[in-house]
Amino acid sequence: MADWLYSFDIWDTLITRRTASAHGIFAIMQDKICNDVSFRQTDIFFRQNFASIRVDTALFLKKANKSRHGHSEITLEEIYRLIANNFRLSETLSEKLVNLELETEYRNAVPIYENIEKVRKLLKEKAQVILVSDMYLAAEQIRKILLQFDDVFNDISIFVSGELKRSKERGDLYRHIKDVYRADYRKWRHCGDNLKTDVDNARALRINADFFAPKVLKSYEKTLLRSGNTLEFQAYLGCSRLLNDSASEDSIYGFGVSFSGAILYSYVSWLLNVSSGEGITDLYFIARDGFVLKKIADVIIAAKKLSLRTHYFYGSRLSLRIPGCENIDEFIRMTFGEYKRSFCFERLALRLGIGFDVLKKYFDVSNADKSAKQVEIYEKAALASDGLKAEVIAAHEQNRKLLKRYLRQEIDFDRKFAFVDLCGSGRTQDMLESIVSELDAGRRITTFYFYNSVNTDYEKSRKITYMTISLGCMLWLEALCRCPQGQTLGYRECPGGRIEPVLENIDNSLLLKWGHEEYLCGILDFCREMSCFEYKNNISVYSSNIFKRYFGMLLHSENRQWAEFLGSVPFSEVGLEAVGASEMAKPYTLWNLFRSEDNDNLNFIRKARTPKIYYRIWELKQRLRNIFLRICRGRRKNIGR
Asked: Terminus-to-terminus CA distance in the chain, angstroms?
């Protein structure tokens, strides 16, 4: 053992980066430079394009050195000397950039303990261990990065291509080390992640080389990175990459990591940042979409040490839309408006909060006409009926009292608070504000939304929206926040006087069987990585581009596995959950396609899940149909002659 030499590559063998690639380090630096007043004197082109300038400069120097000196090895100081020359940077700013890159590398290094433990074990056995890297950083700069994880690197020799002007790529760095240690290639074992430089080139010299499989981006993640090599994609894909060992593409956990985690983290990180800026101290996450969102917020708050408090607030359209004399007309209008497409008197009675027998007194329910025109007639009749309005208000009187008590119990009105939801029109919050204002005169409630569909009534409750683009059906987005609880039906008083929610009794076995717990674990693991990234770099990385690009991949069937998981989420309409759930967007059958039924709101998910052979058969059927029609038209013309 004592006469053997053991060498390890460094990046992606002993440590890796939090970013998707090395370019991510420069993207972080670019963000810092754009926000650092000391760089305001520099050219705006330099500040806004630093990342690509840094990459291009290194490539230029390598090519220049290859031409002039026969090697392509460079150092960090050489890179910034050329950048300073090209962009007229002072020596102070140039030195500041060098230090910023070293600090950014230090902050974003992630240990690979599996191989660090191998180094530790070999040293314990008195083996000769060295580190070898094709890198532009100096040996002592690299050592400082390594020492934050283990002091075992304090006395290990580090051979770096930039300093020695020799490389593993050409093989002369291995030969140099052989001369230094008078080593026997056959008694030398090297470990690294690069198949060419660490394995093939080492084995060409008869060195025993072990390949270490690095954490790599998945194929669709590489596509995402090529489409937008920006800070947000470097950060989000980098965090996903770190979890790729345990997040296989065909697992629910992996779906939570790579898709849902990225979309939901961006939203929650944004709303926490806005809340802190506005002095909001308490956030109330509304059931049930708030179930997952609150867990994400708690992870971010703990990692970033934010002074925000989160609460889970039980509420739903059914329990929070409590009409009074001041808003009964509005209540009736919104109830009819939201169920015109799926109108039935049973659901209308449920939403109005009155019994079906009561509704019979005002409408002929025996032969209901469900046409849109007739539903409008029903709505006008309801608005004109003082008797129906009185019955609806009376039916909610006790619910209104219980809701007020629940609000007093759960909300600290002495603190500045806001509600958090995922999607909606905001009408429920408008009605809730009228009740809150009775408890706290003049109080205007604020609600955060990922996506707010229609409400732009600024005179009512305040709605702060993350996405303000037209996206059509957002039912699939709500599926990302599925919760194993029933909706809140109302409230009741417990024996001790405490008010608790009354939840619908649902069968959540299908959701659990789908893998909800594993899915949630994937989301939260991703959020821990991302919040750690943001905290270490003292930046907030959220962008609507994340959602747009991920949604684009889903919309255009670029990732069938995402569509498979999303479409298979157990789902049922609100109010019918006790009956049972089925897959949210089942794949089309040939019968569906032949009947041209691929036009519902979730057709892009259905299409992605449908076997391609079905569409080929459908296309063949269409061609045959067109040929038949052309023949028929030709015959009619001949007959006419």
From this structure: 100
Tell me what percent of the chain is helix, strand and coil, each rounded to the nearest 5.
Answer: 55, 10, 35
Rounded to an integer, what distance in angstroms lies between the CA atom of residue 399 and that of residue 320?
A: 9
Amino acid residing at 393: I
Residue 15 DSSP symbol: E
Output DSSP code: residue 160: E
Of 171, 179, 23, 194, the closest CA to residue 101 belongs to: 23
| Torsion angle of C-alpha atoms 342, 345, 346, 348, degrees rounded to 10 | 80
pLDDT tens profile 51-99? 999 999 999 999 999 999 888 999 999 999 999 999 999 999 999 999 9
The Cβ of residue 322 has, within 10 Å, a number of other Cβ atoms equal to 23
- Decide the pairing of beta strands 446-452 and 462-467: parallel
The total number of residues written for the chain in this structure: 641
Give the residue from 225, 285, 291 showing the smallest Cα distance to 258. Answer: 225
Token readout for 48 is 């806004």
Residue 179 CB partners (closer than 8 Å, separation 6+): none
Range of weakest confidence among 18-22, 35-39, 59-63, 564-568: 564-568
Is residue 404 within 8 Å of residue 435, measured between CB atoms?
yes
The gap from C-alpha 217 to its chain's centroid, in whole angstroms, comes to: 16
Number of helical (H) and strand (E) elements in the chain, helices listed first: 31, 17
> Distances from the Cα of 599 to the Cαs of 232, 324, 572, 604, 606, in angstroms?
34, 40, 19, 9, 10
- Whether a cis peptide bond, with omega within 30° of 0, leads into 107 is no
Rounded to 10 degrees, what is the CA torsion of 249, 252, 256, 257? -40
Question: Per-residue confidence at 305, pLDDT binned at 50, 70, 90?
Answer: very high
Question: What DSSP element (H or E) covers 54?
Answer: helix 50-69
What is the rounded CA–CA span in Å between residue 499 and residue 245?
46
SS3 500: strand
Q: Tokens 């007194």 identify what position? A: 361
Phi, psi at 136, each rounded to 5°: -90, -15
DSSP 230: S
One-letter amino acid of 289: D
What is the amino acid identity at position 258? S
Instruction: Read off the pLDDT of residues 417-444 as tens digits, 9 standing for 90 and up.
Output: 999 999 888 888 988 998 998 898 888 8
Strand, coil or helix: 410: helix
Give the start-end residues of each E strand in 296-455. Answer: 309-313, 417-420, 423-424, 446-452
- Contact partners, residue 583, CB within 8 Å, separation at least 6: 567, 568, 569, 570, 571
The CA–CA distances, whole Å, from 231 to 121, 180, 237, 280, 366 equal 38, 42, 10, 28, 61
pTM: 0.87
